[in-house]
Design a protein that fits this description.
Elements (H helix, E strand, L loop, with lengths): L1 H32 L12 E4 L13 H4 L2 H10 L3 E7 H4 L8 H16 L3 E8 L20 H18 L7 E4 L9 H16 L7 E4 L1 H4 L16 E6 L4 H4 L19 E2 L3 H7 L5 H10 L2 E2 L1 H18 L2 E6 L8 H17 L3 E4 L9 E4 L4 E6 L1 H8 L1
Parallel strand pairs: 1-2, 1-10, 2-3, 3-4, 4-5, 5-6, 6-9, 9-10
Antiparallel strand pairs: 7-8, 11-12
Length: 389
C-alpha cells in the first residue's frame, strides 16, 4: 500500500513539474511574441536608414542623384516596408533659424515618394547645432542640456517640421524627436522630450512619435526612459552596434581604429594579445573602453540584452523599435553574415521592427562609390534577404 501511495505521489510530482515546465515555456514564448504592434498599423518592421542625404553630408552625395524616387521603388521591391530619414539642423535651417526651402522640398518629396510607393517613413532629427552625439570625439557641440535658448530652439525646429509635414497621413509618416540623446542624466532628456511631446500634441494628437533612450539610445538605458502616461502613439526606440570591435572594425572615428588584427563573431571579438600589439596600452581611458567591449558575443547575448527593451515596452505598454544596427564590410563576409543573421533573428523573435544602417553610406547594403559618386549596382543579397525575411 505504501509503495502504491509512494508511486502515486511521484506521479503527481512529475505531472506538476511537467505542467510547471510547460507553463514556464509558454510564458517565455508569450514574452517572445507579444511585443505590442505599432500604432495605427504603421509598418516599421523592415527598414533602412537613408544616411548622408539630409544628414552628415560630406560632399559625395549630391541630392539630385544620391537618393531618388527610383531608390524608393527599389527599396519597396526588395521587401522593405519603411525608411528612416535622418535630417540635420545645419542642412535644413540657416544659422539664424530660417528654413532652407530647397532642402525642405527634398524632404517633403521623399515623403511623397514613400506614400506613393506604400512605404512608411520616420523623420529622424539626427544632429542639431547644440547637440551632436559624437561631441565627445570632437564632432559638433553639446550645449543643449545647459542652455535654455538651445532647448527652445530644439522645440522650434519641430514647430517648423510640423508646419511642413503635418498634412501627411499618420499611418505613413512618423517623427523621431532626436537621435541618440546624450544627456549627463536621464531626467534631463526625459524632461526635454516631454516638453516636445506636449507641444506637438497640441496640433498632432495622433502622430506616431519615436523616442530613444538617453545615452545614445543604448538598450541598457531603456529602463530610465519615461514617457507621458496614456499616450499610445509613442514608440520607444534603441540602437545597438554590439560587438563594436567587429561591426566598427577599422572605422576611422573609433578609439580602436589602429587595430588591424583579426576579429571574430561569434565568440570573443579579438585576442587581447593581438589588440595591445597595435593599440596604446598606456592610455587607460582607451584601455578600459576596449576591455569593456571585447567580450564573448553570440545569439544568446543578443537575446539577453534585447529582452531589456521588451521588458520596458511591456512596463510602459508601448511598441518598441531598433532604429540602427549594422556592420561595416571590413570583416570577413562569413562573420558579417553571421552577425546579421543572429541579431536580426533576435529582433524577429520578439517581433521588433528595425532599420539597418545604412543604404549607401559606409555600412551600405546598396553599392555606392563615394569617389565617382555613382551607384555600383552591387548588393549583398544574403544580407538583404536576412533583413527582409
Amino acid at each position: 500500500m505504501k509503495r502504491i501511495l509512494f508511486l502515486a505521489l511521484i506521479a503527481i510530482l512529475l505531472s506538476s513539474c511537467k505542467e510547471k515546465t510547460q507553463a514556464e515555456s509558454a510564458a517565455a514564448d508569450s514574452l517572445a511574441v507579444s511585443v505590442k504592434p505599432y500604432p495605427q498599423q504603421f509598418a516599421a518592421y523592415k527598414g533602412v536608414n537613408i544616411a548622408h542625404w539630409l544628414s552628415q553630408v560630406f560632399g559625395w552625395s549630391p541630392r539630385a542623384t544620391f537618393f531618388t524616387q527610383e531608390d524608393v521603388k527599389l527599396i519597396k521591391n526588395l521587401g522593405f516596408d519603411h525608411i528612416r530619414m535622418p535630417i540635420d539642423e545645419e542642412q535644413l535651417w540657416t544659422v539664424d533659424g530660417k528654413k532652407i526651402d530647397t532642402a525642405f522640398n527634398y524632404l517633403k518629396q521623399s515623403v511623397e515618394w514613400c506614400v506613393a510607393n506604400d512605404l512608411c517613413i520616420i523623420i529622424d532629427l539626427h544632429i542639431i547645432r547644440s547637440h551632436h552625439f559624437n561631441a565627445a570625439n570632437g564632432e559638433g557641440k553639446m550645449t543643449l542640456w545647459t542652455d535654455t535658448v538651445a532647448q527652445n530652439t530644439f522645440l522650434s525646429l519641430w514647430d517648423d517640421l510640423q508646419t511642413e509635414l503635418k498634412q501627411f497621413p499618420a499611418n505613413k509618416l512618423a517623427y523621431e524627436l532626436m537621435n541618440e540623446p546624450a544627456a549627463p542624466e536621464a531626467h534631463q532628456w526625459n524632461s526635454l522630450v516631454n516638453r516636445a511631446i506636449t507641444r506637438i500634441r497640441k496640433t498632432e494628437p495622433n502622430r506616431i512619435l519615436f523616442i530613444g533612450a538617453n545615452q545614445w539610445q543604448t538598450i541598457h538605458n531603456m529602463p530610465f526612459l519615461e514617457t507621458p502616461k496614456g499616450d499610445s502613439n509613442i514608440v520607444i526606440a534603441f540602437h545597438n552596434y554590439d560587438p563594436m570591435l567587429v561591426t566598427h572594425h577599422l572605422a576611422s572615428w573609433t578609439s580602436f581604429k589602429a587595430f588591424t588584427g583579426k576579429v571574430q563573431y561569434p565568440g570573443l571579438s579579438a585576442s587581447p594579445e593581438d589588440l595591445w600589439k597595435e593599440l596604446d596600452s598606456t592610455d587607460m581611458r582607451v584601455k578600459n573602453e576596449i576591455k569593456g567591449i571585447n567580450k564573448v558575443y553570440s545569439r544568446e547575448y543578443f537575446d539577453s540584452i534585447v529582452s531589456i527593451a521588451v521588458k520596458r515596452s511591456k512596463e510602459l505598454d508601448l511598441s518598441v523599435y531598433c532604429g540602427e544596427f549594422g556592420c561595416l564590410n571590413n570583416v570577413d563576409t562569413t562573420i558579417r553574415h553571421a552577425y546579421y543573421r543572429d541579431f536580426v533573428g533576435t529582433l524577429n523573435k520578439y517581433k521588433i521592427g528595425k532599420a539597418v544602417w545604412d543604404y549607401k553610406g559606409s555600412f551600405q547594403i546598396m553599392g555606392y562609390n563615394t569617389e565617382t559618386m555613382q551607384n555600383t549596382n552591387q548588393m549583398d543579397t544574403v544580407i538583404v534577404k536576412i533583413l527582409t525575411e
